[in-house]
Amino acid sequence: MKSILDELYSGSLYPAEQVCPTDPQYRIVNHEIGEIKQHLKGKLTEEDIQKFEELENLYCQSTSMESTNIFAYGFRLATLTMIEVYSKNAAKEV
Fold it and tell me: Is the torsion defined by CA of 51, 57, 62, 63 positive or negative?
């Protein structure tokens, strides 16, 4: 088995694709979003539908950027936590 660093470097590990919310409400909320989108699209002109889809694409881009930053922050926080844990253990051993 390759190390995590090897997997990340080679591009065979995609953290964003591995995460799926386990909250039971997640699927329910997404289903409701889909129903509301279909309802709205049924009332819009073709030009408005295109604008709505453009808005949705921009929202997805924004959410992806936010998720990337949250992931990086969490990774840094975990790393700093491990540094603190090991430095305190090292200080106790001395």
Answer: positive
> How confident is the model at residue 93, as a pLDDT?
60
User: What is the pLDDT at residue 16?
Assistant: 77
Is the pLDDT at 55 greater than 60, yes or no?
yes
Closest by CA position to 33, among listed 51, 52, 61: 52
pLDDT reported for residue 44 = 97
Q: What residue ranges do the domains of the chain occupy? A: 23-93
CB 52 within 8 A of CB 40: yes
